[in-house]
């Protein structure tokens, strides 16, 4: 990810107070266009501090942050006590990010609709339930299509439909060339599609292998256990190339369809099965159908969900987790 870097942290450290202990120190991090980055660490380790530095909410005590594009941030705790309605707040945030009034209002309405909160458009923020307030918190970060999206436990408090919609929004941002950095308590969140993973250890940031040390087959099986996934069967002209844009979103395939660099592969077989996370399916279908020449989509169906292994029995005197 050394080319097309969206944001870079160089020797960054952060502490609170002139003589306070260092929360982070010596952090070097470059995030490339289109990257999905997960940050891990124990509670209180400094994950949120790192995200706030990336988002520009906090300034580093030492080192520097460069290259930050239009950035949007979903904090762990959304301050809902503001004198706005849900729609008014989203439109205001869109205008802060540079959208004209009409475009800001249209985007605000669209995101409320997508997160199932259109019915609360005229409701004051202070009157919203925790779940509805979280939908507004997430929507405000998406109204202006940010180049850098920073999510701190953004899925917490959302219902299942809204969580799936946020997954789709993340896929859209990265497919469009933006980058997304997130923290989430669920280790399965977006597993299988993460490009880079880091863990805060002490005051340092250490690189991890996305998804752990599992093999590719184990990753696919894990993704299917989480389910649902979508199987997209496509048929193209004999010898046709798979359209390049598909490679950016078809993160899991049923065969060697795309190269690691995202380049289209030549001499694709006449028929191919793509298995992708459901959050990416709309993007894949759109690219297939708008390719020149277009691909013929034969079927779209859910992949079977593979039962996961039974949890290990708890030791005597230990409560099951």
UniProtKB/TrEMBL annotation:
**Highest taxon of the lineage:** Bacteria
Q: Which InterPro entries match?
A: AAA+_ATPase, ABC_transporter-like_ATP-bd, ABC_Transporter_VariousFunc, P-loop_NTPase
Q: Which organism is it from?
A: Streptomyces huasconensis
* Recorded GO MF terms: ATP binding
Q: What is this protein called?
A: ATP-binding cassette domain-containing protein
SMART domains hit by this protein: AAA (SM00382)
User: Which stretches make up the ABC transporter domain?
Assistant: 7-227
The record's annotation in Pfam families points to: ABC_tran (PF00005)
Q: Which UniProt keywords apply?
A: ATP-binding, Nucleotide-binding, Transport
